[in-house]
Amino acid sequence: MSDDREYQKFLEQCQREWEARCSRCGACCGVVEGDPCEHLRRFKKGGYYCSIYTERFGLHKTVGGRPFRCVPIRDILHKSWPGDQDCAYKKDLSK
Predict the structure, then answer these.
(1) Greatest CA separation found in the chain?
(2) Residue 25 phi/psi, 5° resolution?
(3) H or E element that contains 92
(4) Is the pTM of this model over 0.90?
(5) Based on the structure, what is the number of domains in the chain?
């Protein structure tokens, strides 16, 4: 197997591991604030998911119509937002 292919497989594994850290709390999507992203959906057994996940980045609206820009979580990990104490990514970084 070529080095490029091995590296691509490594990057894909890193991406899967990063995504798996999310606890689906919905805090970064506005659940705690009470006006979440219009694309946020609740699982029947609890937790949240994005209905447009692969196209989520960019300008969107909240359920109440407020515009906001969805960004990668890595871009806001250094910031605070309502409910961020429940964010699994932030918990992992604080270890």
Answers:
(1) 51
(2) -75, -25
(3) helix 88-93
(4) no
(5) 1
CB 37 within 8 A of CB 31: no
Whether 31 contacts 48, CB under 8 Å = yes
Contact 50, 60 (CB under 8 A): no
Amino acid 32 reads: V
Q: Which two tokens stand for residue 87?
A: 């964010």
Q: How far is CA 50 from the centre of its chain?
A: 8
d(CA 92, CA 95): 6
pLDDT of 71-81, one tens digit each?
A: 999 899 899 99
- Structural domain harbouring 10: 3-93
* Location of structure tokens 């490594």: 10
The token pair that represents 22 in the structure block:
């999310």
